[in-house]
Design a protein that fits this description.
- The structure is a single chain.
- This protein has one domain: 2,3-Dihydroxybiphenyl 1,2-Dioxygenase, domain 1 (Roll), CATH 3.10.180.10.
- The chain is built from two helices and ten strands, in the order E-H-E-E-E-E-E-E-H-E-E-E.
- The longest helix has 12 residues.
- The chain is globular and about 50 Å long.
Length: 145
């Protein structure tokens, strides 16, 4: 008996912003996203950003008047709302630190099988940059990157 799978992957992630142009500029300059489209939806602007990897979910930045910093709480401490896979985690750490943002220390797990650090975007959302030996390789989209 085969099981039909209707939902196959995460399609996109929403993050709010009070300044859409500033956030688009931050994500493209610091994390390698590319702006695909922007348009009005239900009374506010949104921007669709993609990484050049073929199977990466899209990031949708939603403009709002409501200033809010997204982060989860894990045992009373901040925990990121999204993790971004990095091919070279040390370079990502150096680059984000040099850009002047709020960047925490790089952490190594086990015997170096995984590495990560937390950082905040231009709106203060808590994000994670991560690398591990278990990360899957992906193809690049045509026309991006």
């Amino acid at each position: 008996m085969s099981r039909a799978i209707n939902c196959t992957r995460i399609g996109y992630v929403y993050l709010p912003t009070t300044d859409l142009q500033q956030s688009v500029a931050w994500y493209t300059a610091n994390l390698g996203f590319e702006l695909i489209n922007s348009f009005e939806d239900r009374g506010s602007m949104l921007a669709v950003l993609h990484h050049p990897h073929k199977h990466a979910p899209a990031l949708l930045l939603i403009e709002t008047r409501d200033a809010q910093r997204f982060e989860l709480s894990r045992n009373g401490r901040g925990f990121p709302v999204m993790a971004i896979a990095c091919l070279d985690i040390e370079k990502a750490h150096r680059d984000l630190t040099a850009a002047g943002g709020e960047v925490e220390d790089l952490h190594v797990l086990g015997n170096g099988e995984a590495k990560y650090f937390y950082f905040r975007d231009d709106q203060g959302h808590l994000l994670e940059a991560a690398w591990s030996i278990w990360d899957t390789e992906d193809e690049f989209r045509e026309g991006l990157g």
